[in-house]
């Protein structure tokens, strides 16, 4: 990839904060070429759909990262409500919530979008959190290694008709081999060489993750914790463009 705008369009910035004014200001400063903004549990629990709509005023697609994990009826209701109130580009559930729940989420997103005459959000499923490694999986009784569990859940997600998954960059090759080129791979756990790892365990640099075949990268603290967030985004875009 040689074009920095094309590189930027693959990046969702995770704005994890309770500060609404800061989130809206930051979204406005990251430039129109950014792929989108990811808002999750911290922000939405503080500010709800009105806060999401406020941040969306900057014009970026919104990835609503609330990782629903409940019984099918409850998740369907949450997906319907979120689709109508937040109009996200993409939202997610946990694949380990099972087949019936994922199908209910898929159908709820489609029916709510149809009812409101808006574009259906991409519905994707979290496989294995990027903060977990093989030892962590053993501890919760999930059959590792992580890559095997990710592929198992990716196949299940695809069978349920969802649009893609959240996985780490380390599993991209295995998931592509199992699920093909059109299945969307959304990849957090991204750490430029100059950033701190923090609580993430299955990490990769932005350039390597794009080279591996990620559709979108989700990058939070390396951008939001930088003294100059827009500068950090530009640096990441240049690294990807050089990949
Ligand atoms: O497996 C997952 C699923 C979601 N996330 C989310 O992505 C961002 C990453 O932020 P960083 O600051 O770059 O670590 C964060 O909002 C998580 O909730 C994830 O990291 N891993």
Automatic annotation (TrEMBL):
One of its GO terms (cellular component) is cytosol. GO terms for biological process: 'de novo' pyrimidine nucleobase biosynthetic process; 'de novo' UMP biosynthetic process. The keyword Electron transport does not apply. It catalyses: orotidine 5'-phosphate + H(+) = UMP + CO2. Residues 10-236 form the Orotidine 5'-phosphate decarboxylase domain. The keyword Ion transport does not apply. Pathway: Pyrimidine metabolism; UMP biosynthesis via de novo pathway; UMP from orotate: step 2/2. Transmembrane segments: none annotated. The active site is at 65 (for ompdecase activity), 67 (for ompdecase activity), 67 (proton donor), 70 (for ompdecase activity). Keywords: Decarboxylase, Lyase, Pyrimidine biosynthesis. One of its GO terms (molecular function) is orotidine-5'-phosphate decarboxylase activity. Its EC number is 4.1.1.23. Substrate binds at residues 16, 38, 65-74, 130, 191, 200, 220-221. Belongs to the OMP decarboxylase family. Type 1 subfamily. Homodimer. Catalyzes the decarboxylation of orotidine 5'-monophosphate (OMP) to uridine 5'-monophosphate (UMP). This is Orotidine 5'-phosphate decarboxylase. It comes from Oceanibaculum pacificum. The gene is pyrF.
């Amino acid at each position: 990839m040689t074009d920095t705008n094309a590189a930027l369009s693959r990046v969702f910035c995770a704005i994890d904060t309770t500060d609404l004014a800061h989130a809206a200001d930051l979204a406005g400063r990251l430039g129109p070429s950014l792929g989108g903004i990811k808002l999750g549990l911290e922000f939405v629990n503080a500010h709800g759909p009105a806060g999401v709509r406020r941040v969306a005023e900057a014009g970026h697609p919104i990835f609503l990262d609330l990782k629903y994990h409940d019984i099918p009826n409850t998740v369907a209701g949450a997906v319907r409500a979120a689709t109508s109130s937040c109009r996200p580009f993409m939202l997610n559930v946990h694949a380990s919530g099972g087949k019936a729940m994922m199908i209910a989420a898929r159908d709820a997103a489609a029916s709510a979008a149809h009812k409101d005459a808006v574009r259906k959000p991409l519905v994707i499923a979290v496989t294995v959190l990027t903060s977990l490694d093989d030892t962590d999986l053993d501890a919760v009784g999930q059959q590792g290694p992580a890559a095997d569990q990710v592929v198992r859940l990716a196949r299940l997600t695809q069978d349920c008709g969802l649009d893609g998954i959240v996985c780490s960059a380390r599993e991209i090759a295995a998931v592509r081999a199992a699920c093909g080129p059109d299945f969307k791979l959304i990849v957090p756990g991204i750490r430029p060489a100059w950033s701190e790892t923090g609580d993430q365990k299955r990490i990769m640099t932005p350039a390597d993750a794009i080279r591996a075949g990620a559709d979108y990268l989700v990058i939070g603290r390396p951008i939001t914790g930088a003294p100059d967030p827009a500068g950090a985004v530009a640096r990441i875009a240049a690294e990807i463009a050089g990949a």
